[in-house]
Amino acid sequence: MSTSIQGKRVAFLATDGVEEVEYTEPRKAVEGAGGRAELVSIKDGEIQAVNHMDKAGTYRVERKAGDADPADYDALVLPGGVANPDFLRADPDAVRFVREFVATGKPVAAICHGPWTLVEAGVVAGRTLTSWPSLRTDLTNAGATWVDEQVHVDGQLITSRKPDDLEAFSDALLRAL
């Protein structure tokens, strides 16, 4: 996609166990379109990404969630991986950041298991989302309608199911910006 998002800042909220391609591919799309990406995490230093359950690359944390302000960003991306969103949803700073970000009305894009953090933030009731299929019950129990689609946009929320959906996911994010 040839969308330009020059001057836009995008927060990527992730920690250990993030599915590598679900972090790196949307980040490449943001930076390739002229935007600035920043890795926000619940810890300092580096995070350990995974390729399914196997260790992959490490990535330098650029800001801690406790120091992150939604006003500093134009969009938020919540990559998946099984462990990553489970750690995030147990962290009060990460949950606060997501809740406050959604309240701004700015785009929030979550893929695969990423919507778990949206559930914990209490922001999915009355919304329609997609995700990795195993989150269907969690999302419906939280008041959302779950759909099996490559990418689904419900207002500011952009969701996708899995790494195979990354191109459509990234394109929807860039369009929203």
Automatic annotation (TrEMBL):
Gene3D superfamilies: 3.40.50.880. Keywords: Glutamine amidotransferase. Residues 8-175 form the DJ-1/PfpI domain. Signal peptide: none annotated. The keyword Glycosyltransferase does not apply. It comes from the Bacteria. The keyword Lipid biosynthesis does not apply. SUPFAM superfamilies: Class I glutamine amidotransferase-like (SSF52317). It holds the Pfam family DJ-1_PfpI. PANTHER family: DJ-1 PROTEIN, PROTEINASE. Belongs to the peptidase C56 family. This is Type 1 glutamine amidotransferase domain-containing protein. The lineage of its organism: Bacteria, Bacillati, Actinomycetota, Actinomycetes, Micromonosporales.
